[in-house]
Automatic annotation (TrEMBL):
Residues 50-59 have a biased composition (Gly residues). It comes from the Bacteria. Residues 1-12 have a biased composition (Basic and acidic residues). This is Plasmid stabilization system protein ParE. Residues 74-104 have a biased composition (Low complexity). Residues 1-104 are annotated as: Disordered.
Length: 104
């Protein structure tokens, strides 16, 4: 399959890429970059095109890209004591209060 040829991708994969690209564009990523990232994500998720002759035909997907965000969450907090977490929470609350007062 030549670069840029999407004929081996299913309709579902094409819809997925379109949705992902739209999400990136909404966050200010340029259209070309958003499309490239979207197809990279679809490839990571599904292993390439699924139609006959495409890579990964008939294999299930574990949706690794869709779950990536959960890997890093909670590690910083888990390594701290309750007192440290509480102090951090108080500091964050004070910052939010100060920012709200500055805006008003």
């Amino acid at each position: 399959m030549s670069q840029g040829d999407k004929s081996k991708y299913t309709d579902k994969q094409k819809r997925k890429a379109e949705h992902i690209a739209g999400s990136y564009e909404a966050r200010g990523v340029p259209e070309n970059e958003a499309e490239a990232r979207a197809w990279a994500t679809v490839n990571k998720d599904d292993g390439g095109g699924k139609k006959p002759g495409g890579s990964g035909r008939g294999k299930a997907t574990g949706h690794p890209a869709a779950h990536k965000g959960g890997e890093s969450g909670g590690k910083a907090s888990a390594g701290r004591t309750a007192a440290e977490r509480s102090a951090s929470a108080r500091k964050a609350a004070a910052t939010r209060k100060a920012n709200a007062a500055a805006r008003a």
